[in-house]
Amino acid sequence: MELLRYILRRMILSAFVVVGVTFLVFIVAQVVPSDPAALYAGPRPTAEQIEKARQELNLDAPLPARFATFAGAMASGDFGISYKSRRLIAEDLRAYLPATLELAVFSTGLALLIGIPLGVVAAARQGRWPDRLGSLGSIAAVAMPTFFLAMLLQLVFAQWLGILPLSGRLSREISIAAPLPVVTNFAMIDALLAGRLDAFVDAVKHLILPALTLASYPAGVAMRLTRSAMIEILERRHVVAARALGLSEPRILFGHALPNAMGPALTVIGLSFAYALTGAVLVEIIFAWPGLGRYVSEAILAKDFPVIAAVTMVVTICYVAMNLLIDIAQALVDPRVALS
Amino acid sequence: MPLIDIRDLSVSIPTPDGDVHAVRSVSLEIERGEIHGVIGESGCGKTMTGMAVLGLVPKGARITAERFHFDGEDLREKAQSLRGRHIGLISQDPAAALNPVLSIARQMDDVIRAHRDLPRKARRAEAASLLAATGLPDPERVLKSYPHQLSGGMQQRVVIAQALATGADFLIADEPTTALDVSVGAQVLALLRRLVAERGLTVLMITHDMDVIAEACDRATVLYAGRSVETGPVEAVLNRPGHPYTRALLAALPDAAPHGARLAAIEGSIPPPRSAIAGCAFAPRCPQAMPVCAAEPPPERVRGTHRWLCHLPEDAA
């Protein structure tokens, strides 16, 4: 009951955040020193062309009316058309967002699966070689520039070992010779829907290196945070009590201490998920990954505001949803969270 | 043969400022089926003695003893494997001893699963029946709860049920009533007495409270500055205390003072745990101290099963 109330409260709060961001995006669009009509009209427009564009874009309507139109359009998933390419933004997003989400979800999952257990082991072996090695590794993981790690991984796994593809989302043998029917644009899901195990395996293989690259930083941070939280928890009386009750050490570490120590790591993982949505431009470029980061950075350079606004909205919603999930996860792990 | 047979136990913990002598010389014999109280001020080594029996001393601590036996087995080698199977712990502060983020069902289940190979449903039933055995009225509801949803007395009963779940027949109860209010504490003591009688348990009761000794224990050992200075049946220790420290402890009880008078206190404080002690550790605070007390270790005085260490002749006690 407490949990349900808590989830409801978080959901309402999330809705407010989304509305707030919608408002902010709209306001920013009004104050940027660039004339959307001029951009929309194309290169070297005449005064009449600009005026025509202004009418077409409904830029003369009063501000509140335009906000209502804007918010309504956002809510219905109609993001308008790109000033630059004249393509429907919603269409573009349908292609780019799944690629980005694939990467973000996988890298976040990897960060959790690598960072947290390593943090637990390091705390359990505090000051001894697993701890030293883990701490060194986490510093390297955090400190290494993304592009360098990306190229290093490509060199080792694609060039030398040849066990993983260099870049892209699918091999040419699949994408050109035997393309998947596009349903969701999530390569793995489409492969499964089509019953194509070969394509599924191929999609997973393509995902590993970019996901690993993106996971490196959050995994390193999660490891450090888990380690320090665990060291504190392992001193607590209930851990001593669990030992005195004859519980096995792995059970104590992962079953009893870890649920108390996961909070900070979960928070960081949530933040890194948000980062992976649009901040992964370098990774997307190096691995030729057709994601949102590249899409939006091109839009920014072209001052293509509808695209920027649409991506901002979509990313906000993804991030808010992720945060909500993390809040719920925290409350499930620690029942006291729902009480506060 | 006593269940617990400890002779001249010492535990020292190396620190950058020198060794801390948490336990200097403790001897303890606990017979099967008795509740044996260990009493002393904070820092006298009573908890560390219990932790040594459990094999849970801090990292780097050194344990030496002439004898350190549980049921004939050397605790220096076997504490790890005895702990949880034959030796259980009832912690001081039940709120801290229970994991705040796990349900009672999970915490009970983990203990039962660690010791017995039972199917899931049987473990659940066992957990409920153990909780019922500790006098909890609605075990099913308690199982569904988290620690913060229970009162202190209920939490302590859960902790006791966990200790029973291990199947241990020797329990170390470390100040089991300190965190509870008086009436709840009395109920917990009565429960322990009942469990000892019903299940043939043996309990080492660590406390700083003479009332707990009087209320619940069969025999008692008094610790001072890491040494056991007096041991014997509770009636003898309470009514005819041999050691001046025990007498001072008894005189400091609120009941001992005439109504309206100032409560007695023991002047001074215990010697610092890093210092070496040549003679009787209590000598600097002892109202009856003689020159020999500070210089030479006191001899053992014996009156039946009642023994204490003091330079004063036996009839002075």
How would you describe this protein?
Chain A: Keywords: Cell membrane, Membrane, Transmembrane, Transmembrane helix, Transport. The complex is a heterodimer of chains A (340) and B (317). Chain A has 16 helices and no strands. The model of chain A has no long low-confidence stretch (mean pLDDT 88). Chain B has 317 residues and is of the alpha/beta class. Chain B has two domains: 159 residues, Rossmann fold, CATH 3.40.50; 68 residues, no CATH class. Chain B has an eight-stranded mixed beta sheet with strand order 7-8-9-3-10-11-13-12, sandwiched between helices. In chain B, strands 1, 2, 4, 5 and 6 form a five-stranded antiparallel beta sheet that branches. At the A-B interface, α11 and α12 of A face β7, α4 and α7 of B.
Provide key terms for this protein.
heterodimer; A: 340 residues; mainly alpha; MetI-like fold; B: 317 residues; alpha/beta; Rossmann fold; 2 domains; 12 helices; globular
Can you summarize this structure?
The complex is a heterodimer of chains A (340) and B (317). Chain A has 340 residues and is mainly alpha-helical.
Number of strands of chain B: 13
**Cα Rg of chain A:** 24 Å
> What's the number of structural domains of chain B?
2
Looking at the overall shape, the CATH architecture of the largest domain in chain B is: 3-Layer(aba) Sandwich
The most extensive interface, with participating residues per chain, is:
A-B, 22 and 30 residues
Using only C-alpha atoms, the radius of gyration of chain B works out to: 20 Å
Arithmetic mean pLDDT of chain B: 90
CATH superfamily of the domain at 90-304 in chain A: MetI-like
CATH topology of the largest domain in chain B: Rossmann fold
Q: Structural class, from secondary structure content of chain B?
A: alpha/beta
| Element pattern of chain B in H and E | EEEHEEEHEHHHHHEHEHEEHHHEE
The separation of the N and C termini of chain B measures 29 Å
* Percentage of β-strand residues of chain B: 15-25%
Q: Describe the largest sheet of chain A.
A: none
Protein name (chain A): Peptide/nickel transport system permease protein
Domain ABC transmembrane type-1 (chain A): 97-326
Subcellular location (chain A): Cell membrane
Membrane topology (chain A): Multi-pass membrane protein
